[in-house]
Amino acid sequence: MSVYVVGHKIPDSDSICGAIALANLKNAIDEPAIAARLGELSPETAFILEKFGFQAPEFKTSYAGEEVFIVDHSELTQAPDDIAEATIVGIVDHHKLGDLTTSTPLECWIRPVGCSNTIIKMMYDFHGVAIPKDIAGIMMCAILSDTVIFKSPTCTTADIKCVEALAKIAGIEDFKELGMDMFKVKSAVQGTPVRDLVMRDFKDFNMNGHLVGIGQLEVIDLSVFDDIKAELATDIAALKAEGGRHSMLLLLTDIMKEGSELLIVSDDATLTERAYGKTTENGRVWLDGVLSRKKQIVPQLQKALA
Ligand SMILES: [Mn+2]
User: Fold this and answer.
1) What is the pLDDT of residues 83-136, one digit of tens each?
2) Residue 23's CATH number
3) CA 255 from chain center: how many Å?
4) Nearest-angstrom CA–CA distance, 156 and 221
5) Interval between CA 18 and ligand 1 midpoint (Å)
């Protein structure tokens, strides 16, 4: 029986590349595994897979009766809907510990580093398995994406060393240039329906009983949103109502200016003041230096909603 290796809902590059890389490692150590995904590829992920010659992992949403290795999260809200009917055999993740539980022992690889693929590299090293050239390429790109080319406060020395080692294996001389090419793909938002943009990198969180949705768009220049910011704000209000959410946040992150404009609709009018020490104007506030949802947005929000 094969184990399915799968990342979170609305998969990002870490979830997709991590599923492929980890399934490859498992197969190399005679533990049959199949990479899977819970949603469509983002343009960035499609760019990465095409560059290194990979097909998208199998699209699969139901896992009842299957064995599953979870990648890049440990949250019920982000896992397959029927995960309770599956057997979780492992988790590799770099987020706060979520609320997934198991009834059997499992293999846990959880480290406070910038990317799940950094941990997957540690797993290859642990098992003494050489990383194939093309796999090294997608792993490297996932780390450059998650760490915003090392600018994110989540980036660690381990991530940088890992990218340097993977770049060597993949034969990529200027990995920062490739990273910028990825963020250029991410910045091409013109012509994309507003709902698709809001949902492109979106995660729901259960914060002390409050459902909070947080989307993020990372671009090279925030001016790409000038014409559509009002529509984005209207759409997050609609999404809040549709999902019965307590709050909806959309982070518009400028990776060059290194900060984010936060668009927010919430049942709690003083939320940003308590979480980030800043009041919103028309549901918008600039948060200087904020690049990371997991480190600079979620913990503060969770505390404010305690
Ligand atoms: Mn990740």
Assistant:
1) 999 999 999 999 999 999 999 999 999 999 999 999 999 999 999 999 999 999
2) 3.90.1640.10
3) 16
4) 25
5) 9
Query: How far lies 26's CA from each of 5, 34, 38, in Å?
Result: 9, 9, 20
pTM: 0.93
pLDDT, tens digit, 9 for 90 and up, residues 30-59: 999 999 999 999 999 999 999 999 999 999
Which segments within the chain are labelled E, that is strand?
3-6, 33-37, 58-59, 67-71, 87-93, 107-110, 202-207, 210-219, 247-254, 259-266, 284-288
Nearest to 34 by CA among 73, 62, 72, 6: 6
- Residue 217, domain CATH: 3.10.310.20
Separation of 72 CA from ligand 1 center, angstroms?
5
Query: 282 CA distance to ligand 1 centroid (A)?
Result: 31
What secondary structure letter does DSSP report for 130?
A: P
Domain range for residue 28? 3-184
- What long-range pairs does 123-131 form, CB within 8 A, spacing at least 24? 123/22, 123/25, 123/92, 124/25, 127/25, 127/28, 127/29, 129/25, 129/28, 129/29, 131/21, 131/166, 131/169
The three-class DSSP label of residue 64 is coil
Rounded to the nearest angstrom, the distance between the alpha carbon of 221 and the centre of ligand 1 is 23
Q: Per-residue pLDDT tens for 153-185?
A: 999 999 999 999 999 999 999 999 999 999 999
CA of 269 to the centre of ligand 1 (A): 30
Q: Are residues 32 and 152 in the same domain?
A: yes
- Measured in Å, residue 165 CA sits from the centre of ligand 1 at 19
Output the CA 249–ligand 1 centroid distance in Å.
19
Distance 146 CA to ligand 1 centre (A): 6
Interval between CA 16 and ligand 1 midpoint (Å):
10
Do 18 and 153 have their domain in common? Answer: yes
